[in-house]
């Protein structure tokens, strides 16, 4: 605030994801309370793609990162089918949500994809995941195929119930300043047993100091190597028991991390960022503060985009926080990461193609980012399938209400009036139930 005063700033544009825009809302409120003239507006920019809601269809950077990683995954797919003897375990960035892995799978068609949201919803244990992968390997072996590509998200390990509980125990020990060398001896009996079961390299990575938000350093945990190690162990076991009679299982692991954000941006991200920048200018000029620049109808050409300003508070909900041992939980308004919609059209499409992806080597090669020619203006597949146009839907509702006003007015028949009243009462009842606040403080992949 002192800096805003000293620079005599009219506006401050905060660019980022869920955390940055939550901070923007807090900062906007603080500046107003202290009579600071600086207006604060947010812009949705995040490679993770987890800032999604009725106002934000996607974030700047997501398309570019997915295009770069999809090319890398497709290269691995071609290498796999060429060598014919390795299973590639590929971990993609995205932190807790699986949006990047999901989009890249739709673009490159790897044989298997494990989403953190699926694991969290089904409460799959680590060994249940391993058995599912092994079943896929065995099904391919029966077709004479001893290669394949498995894609997982960065945050998968936190979606596994027992691993999440272990990580939480380790975080508590970190918060209590327990030395790393002594942590394993202070775990609960079941957590200690799980910890000892894990390979040494995973143990070391789990003990790393947590991020600023008290979460594990997901980018530093080699989940893909853990899965490859356990799958190999299980396949050896199945071979000894006579349940698997194919070739020896061999794996190669990759982590495609934050290198992708250094890429030249795609056409879509260039257009999107330019539009958001211009909206931000108009918002500040109009005196708005605590708002986010948004663009709707992104699936269509640029001239059909709908520009708007949405209040940051409309995207926020309460999340419980503790400020020390034994403290009473307090509510802190925040914008929470949005998980993949497991009831959405994009996920339904993936489920329909899952069997073909697993067995048919239906690999797709999107190629590198192009600025001209075929494919240069392609948009994220999830964005085009979801067909989310919140502002457009509001316009449709307004048109319907306008037609009702026209048809139901003094002079209309009693039958029309009764039908209108009955319909409106029914709609009101349904909307009342749907708008009742639900207990959704924690994201889908948390267990408490």
From TrEMBL:
UniProt-recorded Gene Ontology molecular function terms: diphosphate-fructose-6-phosphate 1-phosphotransferase activity; metal ion binding
Cofactor(s) it depends on: Mg(2+)
BP-aspect Gene Ontology terms: glycolytic process; photosynthesis
Domain Phosphofructokinase: 3-277
Pfam (any one): PFK
SUPFAM superfamilies, per the entry: Phosphofructokinase (SSF53784)
Protein name (database record): Phosphofructokinase domain-containing protein
Species name: Urochloa decumbens
């Amino acid at each position: 605030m002192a800096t805003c005063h000293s620079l005599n700033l009219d506006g401050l544009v905060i660019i980022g994801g869920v955390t940055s825009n939550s901070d923007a809302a807090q900062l906007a409120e603080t500046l107003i309370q202290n009579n600071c003239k600086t207006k604060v507006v947010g812009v949705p920019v995040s490679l993770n793609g987890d800032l999604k809601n009725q106002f934000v269809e996607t974030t700047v950077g997501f398309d570019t990162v997915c295009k770069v990683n999809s090319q890398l995954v497709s290269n691995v797919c071609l290498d796999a089918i060429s060598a014919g003897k390795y299973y590639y375990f590929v971990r993609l960035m995205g932190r807790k949500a699986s949006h990047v892995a999901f989009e890249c799978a739709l673009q490159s068609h790897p044989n298997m994809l494990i989403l953190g949201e699926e694991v969290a919803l089904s409460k799959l244990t680590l060994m249940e995941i391993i058995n599912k992968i092994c079943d896929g390997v065995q099904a391919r072996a029966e077709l004479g195929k001893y290669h394949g590509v498995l894609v997982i998200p960065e945050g998968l390990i936190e979606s596994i119930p027992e691993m999440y509980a272990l990580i939480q125990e380790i975080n508590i020990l970190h918060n209590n300043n327990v030395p790393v060398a002594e942590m394993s001896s202070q775990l609960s009996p079941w957590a200690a047993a799980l910890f000892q079961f894990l390979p040494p390299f995973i143990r070391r990575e789990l003990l790393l100091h947590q991020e600023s938000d008290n979460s594990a350093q997901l980018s530093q945990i080699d989940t893909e190597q853990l899965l490859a190690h356990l799958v190999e162990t299980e396949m050896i076991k199945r071979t000894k028991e006579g349940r698997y009679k194919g070739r020896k299982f061999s794996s190669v692991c990759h982590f495609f991390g934050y290198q992708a954000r250094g890429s030249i941006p795609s056409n879509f991200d260039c257009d999107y960022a330019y539009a958001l920048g211009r909206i931000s200018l108009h918002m500040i000029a109009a005196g708005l503060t605590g708002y986010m620049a948004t663009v709707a109808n992104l699936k269509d050409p640029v001239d059909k985009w709908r520009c708007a300003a949405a209040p940051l508070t409309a995207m926020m909900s309460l999340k419980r926080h503790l400020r020390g041992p034994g403290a009473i939980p307090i509510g802190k308004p925040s914008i929470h990461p949005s998980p993949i919609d497991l009831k959405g059209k994009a996920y339904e499409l993936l489920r329909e193609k899952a069997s073909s992806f697993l067995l048919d080597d239906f690999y797709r090669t999107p190629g590198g980012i192009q600025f001209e020619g075929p494919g240069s203006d392609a948009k994220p597949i999830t964005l085009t399938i979801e067909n989310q146009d919140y502002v457009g839907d509001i316009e449709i509702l307004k048109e319907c209400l306008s037609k009702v006003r026209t048809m139901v007015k003094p002079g209309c028949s009693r039958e029309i009036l009764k039908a209108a009243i009955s319909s409106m009462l029914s709609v009101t009842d349904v909307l009342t139930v749907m708008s009742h606040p639900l207990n959704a403080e924690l994201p889908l992949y948390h267990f408490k």
